[in-house]
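Record format v2
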Amino acid sequence: MKKITINLGQKRKYDVIIGYNNLNKIGSYIKKFDIGKSLFIITDSHVNKLYGQKVKNIFKKSGFQDIYIAEFPEGEKSKTYKIYLILIEKLIEFDNELNKDLFIATLGGGVPGDIGGFAASTFRRGINYIQIPTTFLANVDSGIGGKVGIDFKNIKNLLGSFYQPKLVFVDLSFLKTLDKRELKSGFAEVIKYGVIKDYKFFVYIEKHYKDILNLNPKIMESIVGKSYRIKADVVKKDERDTKEIRMALNYGHTIGHAIESASGFYFKHGEAISIGMVCANDIACNLGMLNLKDANRIENLLSKSQLPVKISHCKVSDIIEFLKHDKKNISGTNRFVLPSKIGKVEIKRGIPENLIEKVLKNRLE
Ligand SMILES: NC(=O)c1ccc[n+]([C@@H]2O[C@H](COP(=O)([O-])OP(=O)(O)OC[C@H]3O[C@@H](n4cnc5c(N)ncnc54)[C@H](O)[C@@H]3O)[C@@H](O)[C@H]2O)c1
């Protein structure tokens, strides 16, 4: 098992535990820092069916007796205020006005993680929570960093907050049941880390992409560990995304999020980010920032990893409309994370709309 400590300064830190078939050790970790006695698990219908009872039994064996599992229909379409309010109602019912010493465990991918973390951040002005990520995407990205929230009016993550978990517990054996398309979706975020921060990591991914798709446990442990280390380093320097440092993690996400929304969530998050990354590269090449060789190398790795690099199932005009709501825009001026080479990105402001439109049109399937 690997342990990574996310140190946010002022004595605020939490551990990420990464292992394979290690979930039965979770109780002993939680007891170390006394985060609560009653456990409210937030998960989706699919993950609950697969793992809800197993996880509940593990917690019971570890001495937690008061446990409630709240599930919601699986998928991005549940990341709404309606589901959020249902969860809050259930929390109130579970708490039963006793002001229980309760904490939340989010069990699942980025959707239960984001909405469950948001419920934890707002219920009684914030209660403790832990993340038990079960998708590859949550294993390498959404599980840490403390960005929690929900979509609103079809706009991604419009309502949310920064709220760090007390522990992130990764058991890679969850991935055995994960759909291949979901696995590849997580892969996009791994490739992102290589491009934004670490050329050597990019080369490592190029070498091992088949091992990742085949879930080689050793390689996966190292990939998840390295991804979290890169993310942790960025989050530590700019926890609240105010210094244009954390923004690097949004490489591919500006156009990616707009494609997710414009396609009515036809594309999985990572798939949309894959298209968003090649579009960002196209913009960078047009601006003379990135050479074609690096752009092609990134696109090749995405394609070999069976991720989409062409736009379909949405209109360019709709993507442009959703781009206007991007949270990175300041006073109507857009901001894009663009690579200057593999391993380095820069923030560019005011990218002309006609260039964005040209790039999007050229990427249409
Ligand atoms: N907070 C952050 O920093 C951050 C970062 C990246 C992405 N996100 C968010 O994460 C979300 C996407 O996350 P996701 O791709 O994990 O989506 P998800 O949570 O919807 O999971 C995808 C699917 O996989 C299923 N699933 C989960 N674990 C499984 C398992 N072990 N076996 C079989 N099936 C399983 C789920 O039921 C669901 O159908 C988006 O909403 C995105 O905005 C957040």
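The CA atoms of residues 259 and 319 lie 6 Å apart.
The first strand starts at residue 2 and ends at 7.
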